[in-house]
């Protein structure tokens, strides 16, 4: 059995021993707080809150939208998918349907391209909605459906890209005008028009007067760059992890156990 070695200056070591114990206790406490903060930061980073911005393609699939429009439809879907972020899809004729919610990844829209063009880019004669969405066009109802989709998802900023020949039903014109004004007055909501062949020129002129000519895409998709920046690099979690590593390194450097050996 080992026996303690008497030290003549033991009293002189009591104060440094208490100081070392206090430093260790403080270091352990700070480390525990940092680990807890890191766990919370990682949890926040992995949550899926509603994105702050999104783009919605509002697609006219009424009977007046034929194969000639399919190329513009496919280009618009691809353009929104390429921008990244979040993207939705709303279909309409005289009724409306949310096909893809605006909280979905924008790349989801690529799955709908093949409904309008073949593998070589050849326009298809019919699409999956030709039978059910072949009635008259009610653009106002479609615009209202897109706004409702965004409000339901809690989207703060959005861009709606209307792909249509804008040949509106007569009884829908008052609603369409009210919706156009609602979009124009909302600073967080942008409306763009991708005009397809066979367009109604008078309605295109109305869109230009209300929204500005920059909102029109004639023979091409309009500008669609609106990327959600709400899910960036988890800076807080990274900073806390670095602080933990530095604290552990400092603890090892300043709190090494006392060691000795016999004098030779």
What does the model show?
This protein is an alpha/beta fold. The protein has 2 domains: 23-46 and 232-254; 53-218, von Willebrand factor, type A domain (Rossmann fold), CATH 3.40.50. Helices cover 41% and strands 14% of the residues. It contains 6 helices and 6 strands, in the order αβαββαβαβαβα. The chain has helices spanning 10-45, 70-83, 139-153, 173-185, 201-211, 235-254, and strands at 53-60, 87-92, 96-100, 157-164, 189-195, 216-218. The protein has a 6-stranded mixed beta sheet, sandwiched between helices. Helix 4 links the parallel strand 4 and strand 5 (189-195). The chain starts with 9 loop residues before the first helix and ends in a 10-residue tail after the last helix. The model is unreliable at 224-232 (pLDDT under 50).
Radius of gyration: 32 Å
Count the domains. Answer: 2
CATH class descriptor name of the largest domain: Alpha Beta
Topology as H/E string? Answer: HEHEEHEHEHEH
Note the total helix count.
6
CATH superfamily of the largest domain: von Willebrand factor, type A domain
CATH topology of the largest domain: Rossmann fold
Q: Do you know the CATH architecture of the largest domain? A: 3-Layer(aba) Sandwich
Number of strands: 6
Distance between the termini: 24 Å
Helix amount = 40-55%
What does the main sheet amount to? 6 strands, mixed
């Amino acid at each position: 059995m080992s026996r303690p070695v008497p030290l003549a200056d033991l009293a002189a070591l009591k104060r440094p021993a208490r100081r070392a114990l206090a430093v260790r206790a403080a270091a352990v406490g700070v480390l525990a707080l940092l680990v807890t903060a890191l766990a919370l930061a990682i949890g926040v980073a992995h949550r899926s809150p509603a994105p702050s911005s999104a783009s919605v393609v509002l697609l006219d699939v009424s009977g007046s939208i034929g194969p000639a429009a399919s190329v513009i439809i496919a280009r618009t879907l691809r353009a929104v998918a390429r921008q990244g972020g979040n993207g939705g899809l709303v279909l309409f004729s005289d009724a409306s349907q949310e096909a893809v919610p605006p909280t979905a990844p924008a790349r989801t829209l690529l799955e709908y391209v093949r409904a309008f063009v073949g593998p070589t880019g050849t326009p298809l004669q019919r699409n999956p909605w030709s039978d059910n969405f072949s009635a008259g066009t009610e653009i106002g109802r479609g615009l209202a459906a897109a706004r409702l989709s965004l409000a339901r998802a809690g989207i703060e900023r959005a861009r709606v890209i209307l792909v249509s020949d804008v040949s509106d039903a007569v009884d829908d014109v008052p609603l369409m005008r009210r919706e156009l004004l609602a979009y124009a007055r909302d600073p967080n909501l942008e409306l763009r028009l991708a005009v397809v062949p066979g367009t109604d020129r008078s309605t295109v002129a109305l869109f230009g007067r209300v929204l500005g000519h920059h909102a029109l895409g004639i023979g091409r998709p309009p500008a669609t760059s609106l990327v959600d920046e709400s899910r960036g690099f988890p800076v807080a979690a990274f900073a806390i992890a670095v602080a933990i590593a530095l604290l552990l390194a400092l603890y090892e450097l300043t709190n090494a156990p006392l060691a000795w050996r016999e004098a030779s």
